[in-house]
Amino acid sequence: MNLEEQVKLAIKGDEEVFEYLMDINKEGLYRTAIAYAKNEQDALDILQETVYKAYISIDKLKKPEYFKTWLTKILINNAINFTNKKKKIVYIENHNEKGTASYEEKSIDEKLDILESIDKLEEKYKKVIVLKYFQDLTITEIAEVLNCPTGTIKTYLNKALKKLRLFMNEEIV
């Protein structure tokens, strides 16, 4: 049975098939969520919300061949909503802690440099980078997800990569 037939079964209410579809897409969705959330727990929350929303609204999916695109749109919208809500939260930090970071914290900081640079991008550029490098989508698939012409996506990708290179050079210096 091909993917399109499985999606049709899920639309009709087959929970096992829906679970299978989520399972085969979970890695790409998680990578996208982590790119927005910057930590595992928040990414898992975004992913959980995405699966829930997909489950309750799968019957509204008109074209089964666009299942992955539809699912990715749900995830991106959830991620954006999550990060916008999180920006409104003010954390009280403990100023009594020592200023030295452990080896593990430094390692994590180094790993997050690229994610922080991606975060500095305008939203339209950030979406293209995340979809291209975290979801492994093609230019055409990104254009479908974002409802933009492929030429626009190529332009956004080039501009985003130039800005990322600039941001990364600034952080190294």
Write a concise synopsis of the structure shown.
The protein has helices at 3-11, 15-37, 40-57, 67-87, 103-120, 123-133, 139-146, 150-172. It is mainly α and 173 residues long.
Please give a structural write-up:
The chain is mainly α and 173 residues long. 76% of the residues lie in helices and 0% in strands. It has 2 domains: 1-88, RNA polymerase sigma factor, region 2, helix turn helix motif (Rna Polymerase Sigma Factor, Chain: A, Orthogonal Bundle); 104-173, Orthogonal Bundle (Arc Repressor Mutant, subunit A), CATH 1.10.10.10. The longest helix is centred in the first third of the chain and has 23 residues, at 15-37. The protein is globular and about 50 Å long. Mean pLDDT is 82; it is low at 91-107.
Key attributes of the depicted protein:
173 residues, Rna Polymerase Sigma Factor, Chain: A, Arc Repressor Mutant, subunit A, 2 domains, 8 helices, 0% strand, transcription, DNA binding, transcription regulation, RNA polymerase, sigma-24 subunit, ECF subfamily
- Round the mean pLDDT to the nearest integer and report it: 82
Count of helical segments?
8
CATH topology of the largest domain: Rna Polymerase Sigma Factor, Chain: A
| Main sheet overview | none
- Cα-based radius of gyration, to the nearest Å: 18 Å
**Helix-strand makeup class:** mainly alpha
CATH architecture of the largest domain: Orthogonal Bundle
Strand content: under 5%
Helical percentage: over 70%
Relevant CATH superfamily of the largest domain: RNA polymerase sigma factor, region 2, helix turn helix motif
Q: Report the CATH C-level class of the largest domain.
A: Mainly Alpha
Shape: globular
The tally of domains stands at 2
Low-confidence stretches: 91-107
Query: What sequence of helices (H) and strands (E) makes up the elements?
Result: HHHHHHHH
